[in-house]
Amino acid sequence: MTLETRLRDRRDAGRKLLMPYVTGGITPTWVDYLRAFADAGADAIEVGLPFSDPTLDGVTIQQATDAALARGATARDILGDISGLEHDVPLVASTYYNLVVHDGPERFCAALRDAGVTGLIVPDLPLDEAGDLEDAAASAGIDLVLLASPATPQPRLDEIARRSRGFIYAVSLMGTTGERSVVAESATTLASRIKRSTERPVMVGFGISTPEHAVEAARSADGVIVGAAVMRRVLDGAIPHDVGADLARMRRALDQERDRR
Amino acid sequence: MTLETRLRDRRDAGRKLLMPYVTGGITPTWVDYLRAFADAGADAIEVGLPFSDPTLDGVTIQQATDAALARGATARDILGDISGLEHDVPLVASTYYNLVVHDGPERFCAALRDAGVTGLIVPDLPLDEAGDLEDAAASAGIDLVLLASPATPQPRLDEIARRSRGFIYAVSLMGTTGERSVVAESATTLASRIKRSTERPVMVGFGISTPEHAVEAARSADGVIVGAAVMRRVLDGAIPHDVGADLARMRRALDQERDRR
Amino acid sequence: REVEEAFREAWVDPGFRGSLARLLAVHIGRPTPLTPVRRLSAELGINLLLKREDLAHTGSHKINNVTGQALLASRMGKTRLIAETGAGQHGVATATVAALLGLKATVFMGERDIERQALNVFRMRMLGAEVIPVGTGSRTLKDATSQAMRHWVGATEDSYYCVGSVIGPHPYPWMVRTFQRVIGDEARGQCASELSTGVPDYVVACVGGGSNAAGTFAGFVDTSARLVGVEAEGGAGAALGRAGVLHGARSLFLQDGHGQIVEAHSVAAGLDYPGVGPEHAYLRDLGRARYVTVTDDEAISALVRLARTEGIVPAIESAHAVAWVIRAAGAGELPSGATVLLTLSGRGDKDVSTLKEQL
Amino acid sequence: REVEEAFREAWVDPGFRGSLARLLAVHIGRPTPLTPVRRLSAELGINLLLKREDLAHTGSHKINNVTGQALLASRMGKTRLIAETGAGQHGVATATVAALLGLKATVFMGERDIERQALNVFRMRMLGAEVIPVGTGSRTLKDATSQAMRHWVGATEDSYYCVGSVIGPHPYPWMVRTFQRVIGDEARGQCASELSTGVPDYVVACVGGGSNAAGTFAGFVDTSARLVGVEAEGGAGAALGRAGVLHGARSLFLQDGHGQIVEAHSVAAGLDYPGVGPEHAYLRDLGRARYVTVTDDEAISALVRLARTEGIVPAIESAHAVAWVIRAAGAGELPSGATVLLTLSGRGDKDVSTLKEQL
């Protein structure tokens, strides 16, 4: 089943989607975080393949990336760790365009497929140059997720909605990833705009750090992505069980909100 | 009797002339050096009126000047010290042109005369501007001594020889005052050149520091001026008696040389 | 993109072009001279001419581009310039033109470069700019660029990102090259009147991101002149890099076997960038330009030699280009009597503390 | 005197004048621009124009004079230049042109100035010059000048004394003014095309020894422009000095009641000279030029203000002239709308360590 089918099914069943993020290779036993996320009720998990120059990430994910690279983490090792894993949650790789160019889109996507990954996010991929990677991803059965931001003009938003697979990644705030105290109004507006263009799931990311944020963002979107908030805990030494517990609270808040309505 | 008459008389009597230098006001009891010089057989004594920027002096006389000024020595005080003095040796003031301009030539020369000074040396006086000071000095009965150097062209040398009073100051080396290990050949040549132009006494200065230098320089000149060598001793703390003894040795060497010939 | 559209419009507007030309003339001091180098030429057996960007206001070619972009930012109604800087020359240029046009300036600079280029940091602050130290990664230009980009994405409303080299996303490499083309165009005209052959045999410039080289080459790409870009051995994106993507540009970058960008290492902060602008990748692939490298030591010797023979203390960056000419002339690679145009991208005052350590 | 004769001959020789003009154009970067200052002018209610000597090679007007004198020294067959320096700009200029013409250079500099101007000391040494510290007297320019003169008298055979300002014995004040006149002549022509009135209402320059002012004034002395020389309060030879003689020049000097020269005190090493050139004494006595003073604090504020409004960091020396314009405009002494030409004698990079202390 493709990532998109899986997410649509759940969304259509009335569930608000939850996708936590973890930087691959951040600790020797980092896959334990994947298991904890699955247990906490994640609908998909974003696995970061660390790149030396994470120009679109905030300070938390920069630190996580530096830590993973300092440990010697490589995309190959991280995919190796994943491929041995038993789980039922779709995995979405995220990385920067240079790693794709380095391997070439076909080889890169094949490696993802072989590891059981079903989605891919490349935040610095220019839409105008995305063709090759879209083709390679499609051939490998991988959904290439495209991003939209509040500054994206409507025609371009329509094109993104049309060409994105899996879901549409709505960047909630102009700026880089990180935890913020309130979810910007722009997130709600953006998610609504995208949803007017497409039937595909719309996930809001960047700046979701509490159950309240998640609930608020999920009002207009189909789900939320939680990155920096998770990684802050991981960097501070929280064990998988504890990070999983945080996520479970978010899961419950989203579910309660649905039940309340 | 003018300075020049005095020096000519002695020169014509076969004596080689000796003129030591002292920076006025270098110590509270600096006039004791004058007495010691007189006792040692000086034919004239050069008294420096210290100026803040002794651009034509070497490091020794710069230091002596700085020391005198730091003590608060002024031209007025120095002339005051002199005027009370009993002695039979002509005194020649030397200073920089700015002090003359500051008082005006008439006032300046009158003050010298009142203190009993009979000669004046102004090393930075440009020949082309010397007229006013020459007149003022003549009116005050003071001999204005002009300087010549090895670089002075012959026509100018002739003019200097004609206009100088007292004696002609032959700068032995191109450069500033100071002790040197040998007397430059240029000194001998220059003195001979000047003597061909004039009957006035010719004194060699700059770089005379030992009895041997004095004897050598006095072969072609009528006498020598000893500045830096004397002041080096004074700065090192030598008492008037000891500096006088040095000078007496130079006097004896000059006299012996005359007797030998 | 907003910037691209604004630039396209501005560039065909005689009013904009006129304002820019006037600022470059009355404020920046253009045209800069072309200096025939006599003594060093004689020693090397060639005919070396220097295009003197060191004489431009603020002491380097960076100001040409900044003047253009800052005028554009004003025209777009922006009130603040954001910039990254390596050696500090682009930062000083940005702070300068911001002051001139009444804009605010925020400059990101790696902590390591802040140490090396204290003079320029102070100059930027004197000019009223905010200098933000970047402590991530290699703490040099690459990281300052990342941080400036991050900051800008959150402030596009009132802020203009003033890129300092022919790097970054479209339209920057093209726009920066266009603004720096004044170097090559002026030099072309000056060579035409100075040289009997009209064009030099070689055109040489140092390459960090590559803006002075791109601007110089642009004036000669349609001539017979051989184009040579000189990189620092430790930052040789064009000579040793592989195809990749960084800071929005698809070009050549130093990478390890896993596609991670490798940190550059050069005594010249302005060459401490692991890649080059896309145009250099293109010129290399076409074979139209060659890219060569020199070591830190060669660059420093060349700096001292130029100072002692011609009375010009070049920036360490520019000294790399001089070093290659000296080496190539010595090795017979530059034939005797060859005419060589070299763009002296900046002056060496900023490098005094580095030189004190190295000499 | 040998120098005078050689200069008279050279100055009427089209070959010499041609070589000088070419060096100034291709090596030094002349003409320097005339910059209309928009933002500060608007704040002050006047029309201020800057003659940009800061853009000349080595960063100050000193190079104009040195280029002339060094060419003359070469023509005379001398192999070494001797110079004194205060702020170090004249020393750097001397070291620069010596390198360019293949001459040796020996530069005397007060120990206090060596501390204040470490950047320039290093530049001189990079350029191959010997820098000799002078520890006598106030350990500044006055003493360096004395020492340079002393040294020169013993070395006239092979050495040429390259005086840095309109001071010293004849023919130096006249010769230096003649070589610096290029500032005034260029500015006169630039004002003619820039100003509807043709000439500015005021012509302002800072005065240490007074060479940039003398060169600027020379271009306007026969016009209706009012000439204003701005001195440091602690080095106001023209404004507060009395007639005297120093370093072979009869002019105005700061003196005590006994005729001793008083030490100057200024944050600007280049203004730390207790006198001015004879021409300024003459212009003052004629009433053709006014001489005014500003304090260290006023100069530093003016420096920062010019940096922040126009993107130009002037030398502290030049900032004195800017300070007077700011004060005079504020006090209504400069009428509203007045056109003011100000010679910006140099750039402020050399002053960074001083500014760090003061700000």
Would you summarize the structure shown here?
With 261 residues, chain A is α/β, with parallel strands linked by helices. Helix content of chain A is 50%, strand content 14%.
Structural descriptors:
heterotetramer, A: 261 residues, alpha/beta, TIM Barrel, eight-stranded parallel β-barrel, 12 helices, 8 strands, 14% strand, C: 359 residues, 15 helices, 12 strands, globular
Low-confidence stretches of chain C are none
According to CATH, what is the topology of the domain at 3-145 and 222-255 in chain A? TIM Barrel
Main β-sheet, spatial strand arrangement of chain C: 1-2-12-7-8-11
Helix/strand order of chain A: HEHEHHEHHEHEHEHEHEHH
**Percentage beta strand of chain C:** 15-25%
Shape estimate of chain A: globular
What ranges of chain A have pLDDT less than 50 throughout 5 or more consecutive residues? none
Total number of strands of chain C:
12
CATH homologous superfamily placement of the domain at 3-145 and 222-255 in chain A: Aldolase class I
Structural category of chain A is alpha/beta
CATH class of the domain at 3-145 and 222-255 in chain A: Alpha Beta
Summarize model confidence as the mean pLDDT of chain A: 92
